[in-house]
Amino acid sequence: MSVSRTWTPSGPYDLARNLCVLQRGPGDPAFRVGGDGAFWRASRTPEGPGTIRIARHGGDIEAHAWGPGAQWLLDGLPSLLGADDDPSDFTPCHRLVHEAHRRNPGLRLIRTGLVLESLIPSILEQKVTSDEAYRAWRLLLQRHGEPAPGPAERMRVMPDPRAWSLIPSWEWHKAGVDSKRSATILRAVRVARRLEDAAAMDLAAASARLQLIPGIGPWTAAETLQRSNGTPDAVTVGDLHLPRIVGYALTGQRGTDDAGMLELLAPYAGQRHRAARLILLSGRTPPRRAPRFAVRDFRAM
């Protein structure tokens, strides 16, 4: 049995672009786009597992949810879809950013209110290729998650903290997760409740709370809080590609580092993550020179 809710955006709204940041690769067991264009998410809420289906009908967004966490998911639907985000606070300072802002009036920064759900896949993405991280997330959920409530076949809800802590070392190894990342996840799930409190904190306090865990640095904290808290200033530092993309887009120069990126984004203080999103949406990226990193097989190490 499902419960439902309808939410109406107050202006232009891009459902696909706003929700896509929650998908961890094309085979994510916790996120799916249906053949009818509906978005499905399987989450572990404070009330238990839940599945939500979100679809647009005319000017309205309609959601149906199943499982013990269904009502929690529906209560948080407006925040999830970006109702708490106010893009009118943003003032473009570069022509490229202005054009990207004009072409994407429906962009909103979403807020899930679930820290661990974004933190664990962000830890898996540390210093590896996207394909490696997506594969690890997929295999771990398929093997150690639980079936999502409702009619979403083959979708999985991520393990609860205790289940994460019981995953044996060889299962991490089979999923291609090295001991450093698995140890960071195990440290995080031991204090899961305190980490979840960060969803109600401002950016500085939330980032500091996450970074108390050894193995969680500014990159992981920002990638998590962008999704869990919808924080417009949570700019990602320590990324392999983002500084070069921002530098090339705004100056035409290659080789920009974190310090240079932060200097370029300084006029957007308070909105640096939104500015970076718009720069990425502009499509202006430096030509690729280096070959892609090969996917490493940790099972042979």
TrEMBL record:
* Gene3D superfamilies with a match to the protein in the record: Hypothetical protein, domain 2
Keyword field: DNA damage, DNA repair
Protein's name in the database: DNA-3-methyladenine glycosylase 2 family protein
